[in-house]
Write a structure and sequence with these properties.
By secondary structure, the protein is of the alpha/beta class. It has 6 helices and 12 strands. The longest helix has 58 residues.
Length: 275
């Protein structure tokens, strides 16, 4: 039998074609393997994420329902006028309530409704202690109502009503005003009262105490003592209080043992003491 003759160059081309086909097949196989690996890697990542979320959820449920984080102590700080039991009652927090899930903003809102509470900060001391830090309102002044005396803080909140005049700053010249316990007089339409409250608030912030604040139109008279007063246009006096200059002027008279006269406040914070 005759064997067909194949040229050497054709044999080489045939061999190269077979080699290319193998390479292509191998590359396709390699790409398929890489694709499967990517899918498996993606699935593992997704599985780990789901597992992590599930574990976090289980941990959260354990914490929320664990008696370890149940409130067993409520510490109240800064209260001198409001009793602890009233503060705790207002917070509506009970023994055993979960400290972790407790809404501090809600507790602040509830306790701040107490009249004498000016502000409140709630802190958690894990695992089981709740801390309530209060700033209480202070009785700073009073006004004469139709049949009594309304006692105010520096913001104009009526803290109490008494039939006797207290030893606080008397806001005079604001007219007869109706006021009940809990009223916010800063919202009043009475311009004289608003001015008196503004001066009271500024005096409180500047560590100044006046026995009387008398409103005379746009002018004011502030009595540091029975016979020693400050007089001037309201805006000039307010500026002097806020700058601290009035405080220096008053204390300088104390140092010189001056207990009578009028400290007159002019524009630009100019002071003049007259008999």
């Amino acid at each position: 039998m005759d064997i067909p003759y194949i040229a050497n160059d054709r044999i080489e081309m045939y061999t190269e074609e077979i080699g290319k086909e193998d390479q292509i097949a191998l590359e396709r196989k390699r790409q398929a393997i890489l694709k499967r690996r990517k899918k498996m890697r993606r699935r593992r990542i997704i599985f780990r994420i789901i597992l992590s979320v599930l574990l976090l959820f289980i941990l959260f449920e354990i914490i929320v329902h664990s008696p370890i984080f149940g409130v067993n102590s409520i510490v109240v700080k800064g209260n001198s006028q409001v009793e602890k039991k009233d503060i705790v009652k207002a917070s509506k927090v009970s023994d055993g309530d979960n400290l972790y899930s407790l809404d501090t903003k809600e507790v602040e809102s509830k306790v701040s409704k107490l009249l004498m509470v000016k502000s409140l900060k709630v802190e958690k001391d894990y695992p089981s202690t709740l801390i309530l830090k209060l700033v209480e309102r202070e009785k700073m002044g009073y006004i004469k109502t139709e049949d009594a005396y309304a006692i105010l803080d520096e913001e104009g909140i009526v803290l109490d009503v008494s039939d006797k005049a207290p030893k606080l700053t008397y806001l005079e010249g604001v007219g007869k005003i109706k006021a009940s316990k809990g009223d916010d007089l800063s919202e009043s339409d009475n311009s004289k009262l608003k001015l008196a409250l503004k001066i009271l608030h500024s005096s409180y912030s500047g560590n100044l105490f006046f026995k009387r604040i008398v409103i005379n139109g746009s002018k004011v008279d502030l009595y540091a003592m029975d016979k020693l007063s400050v007089s001037g246009e309201a805006q000039n006096v307010l500026k002097a209080i806020k700058s601290g200059d009035l405080s220096k002027a008053i204390y300088s008279t104390y140092k010189e043992d001056i207990d009578s006269g009028v400290i007159r406040v002019g524009e630009g914070g100019l002071f003049r003491l007259s008999p």
